[in-house]
Amino acid sequence: MANVIEARDLRKVYKMGEVEVEALRGVSFEIKRGEVVAIMGPSGSGKSTLMNTLGCLDRPTSGEYVLDDEPVASLTDDQLADIRNRKVGFVFQSFNLLSRQTAITNVELPLRYSGKSSGRRQRAMDALKAVGLEDRMTHRPTELSGGQQQRVAIARAIVNNPAIIMADEPTGNLDSKVGREIMNLLLNLNKESGTTLIIVTHDPTIAEQTQRVIRLRDGLLDGAQ
Amino acid sequence: MSIAQAFLEAVESLSGNKLRSGLTVLGIVIGVAAVIAMLAVGRGAEASITGSISGIGTNLLFVFRGSPDNSIRNTRPITLADAEAIADPFAAPSVAAVAPILQANREISYGGERATVEVSGVTPDYFAVRNYELTEGEFITEEHLLGRASVTLIGPEAADALFGRHDGITGETIRIDGQPFRILGVLASKGGGAFGSEDNVALIPFSTAQARLIRRSTRDQVDMLLVQAVSGNAVLMATEEITQILRQRHRTPVGADDFTVFTQQDLLTTFQSITGILTIFLGGIAGISLLVGGIGIMNIMLVSVTERTREIGLRKALGARKRDILIQFLTESSLLSLIGGIIGILFGWLISFAVGQIALARGTAFTPLVGADAVALATIFSAAVGLFFGIYPANRAASLEPVEALRYE
Question: pLDDT tens digits for A163-174?
Fold first, then answer.
């Protein structure tokens, strides 16, 4: 199976005033298409930086990163925005839904930025159906439970058929029972559509459900030192 | 993202915070309303002055003592002899009639009632030149002039002040500066003008004024000559002829005329330039309030950008480009000021209307004019203000780093 992610020698240096902080110090790995991978590591290990880089929210200082056959390490801001729109679906810990908009409008949001106007509503409805919220389409986030809100966020992540889903602590704000449902939903979506799933987490029980765990420590892959 | 979508989102976003949007819009409403109202008042003033200058008569020229810029000393007064010379049809063929005038404010009284009016000593030509009409009685004649008769024609406003009515008073005797005058008739109303009411006047024979009421230092001196040209085209010719005659009679050196000939058109042009400056001045002051309104928009948009940092981060994470965010916020600020502009136009029109009604109630014929150009100007200017003051906040939103924006609490 082909690799959906190829990262080679990723480095990221933050300048904080005079001091330079190396958040990533040469990270290399591959993730295969359809794989379910967890990224783990203590805080300060460069986990968030890696996630931002893999999600094309940020560029590495040096190194190569190929996402779905496209080298993205040195693209412009607008090109990165386009890649995020087409290839990456984000699921956040705090859901990040637009509170004044209905569920279906929230799910439509990525389609608005992709410039396709036809069939937008239908695709958003299909995505909401896939997460089991077909009867909550016109509800606003405030009228939904935490689990339901996260389902809307997942529908929003898959509506553009992305190459990867980046989930950052997707169960962090939910109780364990609802958290398990959300994990099952993510894993089912991966099984059905073969979308690569990358989960950033602290929780070992979640990491157990994935096929592979990438561990970070001090900006390096654990065991690579 | 298309413009229609951006527009819909802006409407949603603004209506989600109605009080704040309303208060922000208020600044623009006041600014635009002020601009519209001030321009309308300026236009109205211009129309009113034009009307009252045309109302003086047709094809008129005014002759005064003194050079136009007051630079000539020892000027000779204009006299009755000058008037007769100008009235000579061989010397001045373009002149139809000449009316010499003596003018002063005097107190008139009847019984216990008193009023101060503008008293003019006039000749019979004056009525034709000024297009006066009477509601009762008769005009001053040559006989009155020759006999220095104590007769007067009074305006309806002066009549109202003394008698409480302006009909059936012909034959009554009033006092002007204590001297008795018989009322010969009542003038038809000319309405209020830009130079005060034309109805608060008393007209008496020129010779009577000269001998008893309005004494001037030189014999036969007049305050002003009102000259009517034979036609509109003859006005310039008449100016030339009058100038020639007076130069000869006053023996003035070339380029040092000690008199001024003013045409009605000159007067019109002068006052139009004054009202023009007035309009620009008022409009400019109103424009400042529009500017302040624009700064209000910028302020609120900056607050909004800060508040919605996470939302901006999310939109960027979902694929919004810099341009998309820019358009989103610019649409919001333009929409704010456009709504303000539309409400402001209505509001400004209402103010102009109210000003017109107040003027009407006080007897001044003054109608503010809301022009289509003022409306267009206000609309374009207010939208431009929104766009201009929206650029900085929108740019700030668009340049946010997605990672930082998402992390913002």
Answer: 999 999 999 889
In this predicted structure, the answer to whether residue B194 has a pLDDT above a threshold of 60 is: no
pLDDT interval class at A1 (50, 70, 90):
low
Q: Which one of B17, B318, B327 would you mutate to disrupt binding with A, by most A Cβ within 10 Å of its Cβ?
A: B318
pLDDT tens column, B351-367: 999 988 888 887 666 78
Contact B12 A101 (CB under 8 A): yes
Max CA distance (Å), chain B:
103
Q: Where are the domains of chain B?
A: 3-53+269-407, 76-228
- B-interface mutation test, from A77, A118, A169, most B Cβ less than 10 A away: A77
Looking at residue B89, its pLDDT comes to: 87
What's the Rg (C-alpha) of chain B?
32
Tens of pLDDT, residue by residue over B44-99, are 888 888 887 877 778 889 998 888 777 777 788 888 889 989 988 888 899 999 99
Question: Taking Cα atoms as reference points, which of A98, A88, A210, A205 lies closest to residue A158?
Answer: A88
A156 vs B: CB within 8 A? yes
**Share of residues in chain B with pLDDT > 90 (%):** 34
Distance, CA of A53 to CA of A113 (rounded, Å): 21
Give the nearest partner residue to B320 out of A58, A86, A113, using CB atoms: A113
Question: According to the 3-state scheme, what is the secondary structure of A167-185?
Answer: EECCCCCCCHHHHHHHHHH
Q: What is the pLDDT of residue B176?
A: 92
> At CA B290, angle to CA B289 and CA B291, rounded to 5?
90
Backbone φ and ψ for B122, nearest 5 degrees, come out as -135, 165
Whole-number pLDDT of residue A225: 42
Cα separation, B257 vs B67, whole angstroms: 6
- Angle, helices B264-307/B18-55, rounded to nearest 10 degrees: 180
Query: From CA A115, how far away is CA A9, in angstroms rounded?
Result: 34
The domains located in chain A, with CATH, are: 3-98+161-221 (3.40.50.300)
Instruction: Say whether the ipTM exceeds 0.90.
Output: yes
Place of tokens 């305006």: B155
Alpha carbon of A42 to those of A36, A39, A169: distances in Å? 20, 10, 13
Predicted confidence at residue B191, as pLDDT, reads 62
Q: How far apart are the first and last CA of chain B?
A: 27
Identify how many contiguous H helices and E strands chain A contains and give both numbers: 7, 10
